[in-house]
Design brief:
The complex is a heterotetramer, with two copies of chain A (220 residues) and two copies of chain B (342 residues). With 220 residues, chain A is mainly alpha-helical. Chain A is built from nine helices and two strands. Chain B has nine helices and 14 strands. Classes of the chains: A mainly alpha (220), B alpha/beta (342). The complex binds adenosine-5'-diphosphate (2 copies) and magnesium ion (4 copies).
Chain lengths: 220, 342, 342, 220
């Protein structure tokens, strides 16, 4: 079974809605250990994504993700912009020209995205960044793929792992980004970027579960 | 208390949080049409006569809310272009790429970047784009804030007050016709010889957030505050101006360290909500402390030049001067915010 | 609410209320030793090279807390001396008498007085003392604040923003060597052609009083505020920057009145606690309003030049220009707060 | 009977103490219709007066009052400085060289002081200024003198009249000074300067009543 361009669009639209809804929450997390703008930045970015996607909804998966990446790079700024922008640009590059993609392709693309984030931000695991949500999610997805799980189960498991990774940032001392200025004072707070990354993967799993494959097929 | 503070400090002379930056840029364009032109989407403030053939182009940028930095420093003898991001959020690569193209006079372009993860990454992406189009681009990162310890375990010291002094001094050098390598090396020298530390009496409010970035009691102050309201070294009881000046200045002096006999540029900066009379009170204490240490102030700057919206507080920056940096500090400058010799 | 505001805004970078003015004056003296010298008891800020033989001396003064006015305007092409009083309290006759003596180069001295009962009476006593010692002294009174109706039933309009512009323009004229009568007449012309109106978002705190001069709700603003926190025309709900700018500017325009085709100097001033980004938002609105009226801004000034301690708010001043006032506005000036052409 | 230089000093010292004690009260009245500094200004002024009087306590009445006037002119600033300064300078000039003065001389001196205040400030009665406390006080004093009242009674009556005049400023609309900017909004507030003037005359009456003439004589 596969993920269609339509499901990718519904994922991005769903995540945009989630970010808008969680704007204050994400900003609050960032105010505690950063500069209090993460939700604002991400919301500005994904509102732009919606605008840029509207005219190209029928494009292939790769170009949808690249469009998203460009929109984020050009509108978010801060650390989130280059990081999420690179994530989507790299993921999109991995899926060039595909109208629909299999579970393994999708996971590989997410992994390429993570690789881009790490190259751009040079964060290691447990530095208390978005990497701490993304990396375990990819690991878990790979494991489920290996066990032959369904696409839905793979993405649900990835989202669960991201959630655990997000929560696991709370006791960590930040070593990257603004939060690292706080040293010990960063301990006890959940990382905003890890939180937005978890929400992103949960939105992916939800949209794929929500839009049954056949329905989507019929529209392509 | 906090609640009261919130609502009280929410008072701003703006139309909407979304339009604040654009409205201010239009105001700047109208007020300083003789010096700058402003392009929108992507937002860039460009020296009116850019590109200057054969002159190294200087491009800086950062979040808005620090005015006059950086847009107020575009003009003769300082920056060729500035890229204003959203409030407290670094600008995007397309802005810096456009600025780089607009000011490239063939001698290359220097990006002046404050050390924040977001600024670094966005400028990096911009440099990659610009180089892709064949531009010669160097970057220098300012990281003078001694409140943050520079170690493998942090993103490194933040770029603050020295950035303003660097833009002026390096701007004088570029105006004199130096090549990209010379300009780049001078920039590194200035950054290496400057240190800063700030403090806040009150928080600022990011308009889009609508409430103070941090709560602070009426008898407290935040020592080592960042220019985005990032918490600093410690939260202490409010002290007298003399005590505050001594903490900031001694920490700065001991970090470089500045030594007996050094000649320095002493820069006492207001955070945006602090009146000038208080900055002179602080400067007086800084001056007394330094003379006690046998450190000579040969140049000074007192005013609100790198701010944090309406935050009340101040920062102290010291830059060790030599004949080269002194010469370029004294060189003519004509920008919206700094002007002399012309 | 008020209580919270009180304690919150009490935060100042000072040592004690009693020492604030002295500490700030010492800071100014140290920071600007190249331009000014400061005498204490009586407190006077004097241009370094005063008296200038044959040049008309310009002396102004007023309460402290309005920095950079007036001390920041002492120097080439502007004031010869300034007399700082206690915070918001006019200086005493001995100060103005000493200043007058110190700057009298034989061509007479002009006292620039803002229209407040206290300032008028103290300058009058000073002029009597100085004349008693044989000095030639004229006085000009600024009264540009349109928020106060000028009638037999008030002390008359207050002197505010125009004072800064007058000191610059008349300073340029005196520097050019004009005689006392010419300088005095130009001063009267500038005052006659300028109008101002201000507003406040928050109150200021007189340090010695230790609490806000007035309470203001979180959704209110004071229109027509004075620079000492004197209540203005009306207390209204907080409005957008565009609406505020239109109220201030239209009231100013209609008072003189300024007419289609007039060329003006537009001065958007911050009250001390307002960040520059907001002043540019206001300037943008003022500029749009005036172009709509067919009034041409040929010169502009945006910044905090006549303040009320940490009060948040702004004022708009318009001055109708002609070739003479434009020439002297553009003339070189070199003071701690204003500098160009040199 | 007469007022000695010693009683003049005790008057000025008593008034300085009253001003220090009422500093916040006077400042509060000024905050309501002015700029909130009258108490601060007067206190700064009379603390200076105490310093300047200390070395010259034995001087004649005229010079004590002139010293007081000079101290006020040089330290108060604002409207209060020139006004109170002029008041004492003129009063002192009227009593030049006198070690003690009779009731009629004292009242004439106070009247000269009032005349100076009016020349300096150009206020008419009912303009809501200190004149509204001083003028009725002089009138009442003259009347009592005419009726042959004792010095104590004359000064007590003057203080009473000043108090009435002070209270009578409440319903007035200010026509002079900062309060006039308020127009109608100045109505309903008691004038700070009229209040400090009343306190000054009450202090005079109290000190003369408190220091029996004979006692003072014996010390001169
Ligand atoms: N070097 C980095 N590598 C990966 N993620 C990072 C890095 N630096 C910061 N982040 C992520 O970015 C988030 C902050 O994003 P945001 O608030 O939008 O940017 P800024 O810190 O510039 O305001 C952090 O919570 C963290 O998860
Ligand atoms: N023209 C005047 N004539 C007489 N008294 C005046 C005049 N103007 C002001 N006053 C008095 O001065 C008082 C204010 O004094 P103060 O607050 O010390 O001066 P300022 O108004 O300069 O702050 C008023 O309450 C009033 O009684
Ligand atoms: Mg942030
Ligand atoms: Mg940010
Ligand atoms: Mg006053
Ligand atoms: Mg007063």
């Amino acid at each position: 079974m596969a993920v269609t361009n339509r499901q990718i669009v519904s994922w991005l639209e769903r995540y945009a809605a989630v970010v808008a809804e969680q704007k204050q929450y994400l900003t609050g997390l960032d105010a505690a250990i950063g500069d209090g703008d993460h939700g604002i930045n991400m919301d500005r970015g994904f509102q732009t994504v919606l605008v840029k996607l509207a005219p190209v909804r029928d494009n292939d998966v790769g170009s949808l993700l690249k469009t998203t990446g460009m929109a984020l790079v050009g509108s978010v700024g801060g650390a989130g912009g280059p990081l999420y922008g690179t994530f989507f640009l790299r993921a999109g590059a991995a899926l060039d020209g595909k109208a629909e993609v299999g579970a393994d392709e999708l996971v590989a693309a997410l992994e390429a995205g993570l690789k881009g984030v790490v190259e751009r931000g040079k964060a290691n695991r447990n530095d208390k960044t978005m990497v701490d949500a993304l990396a375990p999610a990819i690991d878990r997805a790979r494991q489920y793929l290996g066990e032959g799980a369904s696409l839905e189960d793979v993405l649900a498991a990835a989202a669960d792992a991201a959630e655990e990774g997000m929560k696991a940032t709370i006791p960590l001392k930040a070593l990257k980004g603004r939060a690292s200025y706080l040293g010990e004072r960063s301990i006890g707070h959940q990382d905003p970027g890890a939180t937005s990354s978890y929400l992103m993967l949960r939105a992916l799993s939800d949209s794929v579960a929500a839009v049954p494959e056949r329905a989507s097929r019929s529209t392509t | 208390m906090a609640q009261a503070a919130v609502t009280t400090r929410l008072k701003k002379l703006i139309n909407t949080p979304e339009t604040e930056v654009r409205d201010a840029l239009e105001g700047m364009a109208a007020a300083h049409a003789d010096l700058i032109r402003v392009e929108f989407d992507p937002n860039v403030i460009i020296r009116k006569d850019a590109p200057r053939k054969g002159k190294v182009g200087l491009v800086s940028g950062g979040g808005s809310g620090h005015e006059p930095m950086h847009g107020g420093y575009v003009g003769l003898g300082m920056l060729d272009a500035a890229c204003p991001g959203a409030v407290f959020t670094s600008p995007t690569p397309d802005q810096m790429a456009r600025a780089t193209k607009a000011v490239d006079g063939g001698a290359g372009v220097l990006h002046i970047v404050k050390n924040y993860t977001g600024d670094i990454m966005n400028f990096e992406m911009a440099a990659e784009l610009a180089r892709g189009e064949g531009a010669k681009v160097n970057a220098v990162v300012t990281n003078d804030d001694v409140a943050v310890q520079d170690s493998l375990y942090t993103a490194g010291r933040r770029g603050v007050g020295v950035t303003v002094l660097l833009e002026k001094i390096v701007g004088g050098c570029a105006e004199a016709g130096a090549d990209l390598e010379t300009v780049t090396n001078l920039a590194k020298k200035v950054n290496a010889n400057g240190r800063s530390m700030g403090m806040a009496l009150t928080s600022c409010i990011v308009p889009a957030a609508g409430k103070p970035t941090f709560d602070i009691a009426d008898d407290e102050m935040e020592l080592g505050i960042g220019i985005h309201g990032e918490p600093g070294r410690e939260r202490t009881k409010l002290k007298s101006a003399d005590e505050i000046a001594e903490v900031l200045t001694s920490t700065v002096v001991n970090d470089l360290p500045f030594k007996r006999g050094d000649e320095v540029l002493a820069f006492v900066n207001g955070m945006g909500g602090t009146p000038l009379i208080e900055l002179y009170v602080v400067y007086n204490a800084v001056n007394k402390y330094l003379s006690g240490q046998g450190i000579k102030i040969s140049r000074s700057l007192v005013g609100s030049y790198i701010t944090s919206l309406e935050m009340a507080g101040c920062s102290v920056t010291l830059l060790k001067l030599d004949s080269e940096t002194t010469k370029f500090w004294d060189a003519p400058v004509h920008t919206p915010a700094l002007r002399w010799g012309v």
